[in-house]
Amino acid sequence: MKQFLSFVKKEFHHILRDKRTMFILLGMPVAQIIIFGFALTNEVKNSKIAVLDYSHDVATTAITQQINASKYFEIKKNIINYKNIEAAFKTGNIKMVVVFPENFYEDLQHFNKAQIQLIADASDPNVANTLTNYATAIIMDYQNRITDERKLPYSIHTEVRMLYNPQLKGAYSFVPGVMAMVLMLVCAMMTALTIVREKETGTMEVLLVSPAQPLKIVVAKAVPYLLLSMINIISILLLSVFVLGVPINGSLLLLLAVSFLFTLTSLALGLLISSATNSQQTAIFIALVGLFLPTVMLSGFMFPIENMPLPLRIISNIVPAKWFYTIVKSVMIKGTGILLIWKEVLVLTGMMLFFLALSIKTFKIRLA
Amino acid sequence: MPSVSAKNIVKFYETKNDKIQALCGISFNVTKGELFGIIGPDGAGKTSLFRILTTLLLADKGAASVDGYDVVKDFKEIRKIVGYMPGRFSLYQDLTVEENLEFFATIFNTTIQQNYDVIKEIYIQLEPFKKRRAGKLSGGMKQKLALCCALIHKPSVLFLDEPTTGVDAVSRNEFWDMLKKLKQQGITILVSTPYMNEAALCDRVALMQLGKILSINSPAEIINQFKKDLFAVRSSKMLSLLNDLKNFNEVEDAYFFGAYHHVVMKHKNEEQDLKNYLSKYSNDNLEIKNIQPDIEDCFIELMKQSHEIELH
Prior knowledge:
Strand order of the largest sheet of chain A: 2-1-3-4
Oligomer: heterodimer
Structural class of chain B: alpha/beta
Largest sheet of chain A: 4 strands, mixed
Structural class of chain A: alpha/beta
CATH topology of the largest domain in chain B: Rossmann fold
Strand content of chain B: 25-35%
Strand order of the largest sheet of chain B: 6-7-8-3-9-10
Distance between the termini of chain B: 39 Å
Helix content of chain B: 25-40%
Largest sheet of chain B: 6 strands, mixed
Number of domains of chain B: 2
Order of helices and strands of chain B: EEEHEEHEHHHEHEEEHEHEEHEH
Strand content of chain A: 5-15%
Number of helices of chain B: 10
Number of domains of chain A: 2
Radius of gyration of chain B: 23 Å
Helix content of chain A: 55-70%
């Protein structure tokens, strides 16, 4: 035990004396939450658009005003000629143009039918889609108001409720994602790095020729990073609750417990990497490509897994972060209890045990 | 029972398209309390041998034991009783001198106080710097610290892999003095070095080249076995002098040796012939003297012989 504690103490010395690395380890989650929370948002706000109005009547003015009043749009420009539309897209940062033909109001009154053209800059397809949807919604809203006055015989009104995230905030989905990412980086990569560093500097050679059990050496290395990860989890949760306003709807204890489980899985993966390589460079490379990239791409945090082709959907099942992400989303956002997520927890536990067993089995008690 | 014994150890390293034989049947015994040197140039296989004996590598053939424990079967026991200092400085550079020593004491289940008498003489020199980080020490100090860490558990066998490589001459002498004192405490010491002149400081030495041991003997005996006539020759034109010497039929070998060329003659009592031969060439300030071989001359001779056997 004394031996073990001495190892842990040494490991803490390594971390605490390397101020820069420690700063990165503790600062990274904070930076990521802030970047994802405020900079990398795919919500559309105040998009600049232009209007080409050939009628200038009651209806077009009302619609234009309604569009301008919404928080999604900001009318930057009035175009007077159809030919100028392309130029407006090219020169300005206009994202969409709303075109009203001549005699809009008259057509609506006499033929019960009028047309509006929405021209969007689809170089970013998602933004174009969102913008036209918002604009269509505003126009439909206007239509509903004028038809209400006339009493149509049939009409279907849709009432939409956004459950768990009524304001459609992006933070609800990226906080669990950032948690998975940070834990993967801190635990797996740093554990792999410190063990490989001992190999690289030759200290592992001395440690092996000692009565210390190799397993003890390795576990002692993991302890400080386990602690560091828990600090990171807490700082991420604090930031997301108090800065981003994402609530923790489920049990905090359950959330911390699954984070601990995922941390252990990452540590086991880190150990596995460390026994497969002898240089820090290779270790970083394997950790980034083999662990970090799948965590970002295949966990469902950046891109929905349901939309992926079948092979990728199958592969995503072996990415531990996918299961962790699902669990955290359920517990944190939906407030689910253990009864509904036990399957995912079981899968993650199985992975943890498998990787741990494999890393212990592959750990080298000799140099080659 | 020998303290360390190796029998016919063979080790291969396999690379992608090559199989290199690092050790070709190494056998030797080291008795308890002996200071045993393994001398050989880079690539002779010294480090591989040390790693096999310290249980870090597995030999492909052969058997070895340390204090009666088999290096494969009883590796856990061996790891408790040996001290090992690898060729590269292998301590924690970001820990202080004291922390390093304390750490190694704890992993060997002991304390600095318990075995202080073993390291006392060496540690006293380090004590003024005990709060300094190991990475900030000078080369000689690093070696002393590494030696302390390898000794802290009072090992019965100490393996030192090239401890004096890259250390200045003064520190090297100091280091050998320390080894002699350790020997008096009954610790068996195996030390490897590429410096031939250090061989004279060992009880016995094994000369290694290309994975083979060329000879094992005490330094005095090695020198005794040198039966040929040896001359030190010098003139103002050393380079052309060496060429002239090599062209002389009666000369077996001639090589640079400090300020002189050392010349090994094929037959006895040919000093006059050598003088006559050299005087034919324009060698100013010619100086020829008959000398006693030192251990380096013996090794050069042994290596040359083994090389010739290889060729035939």
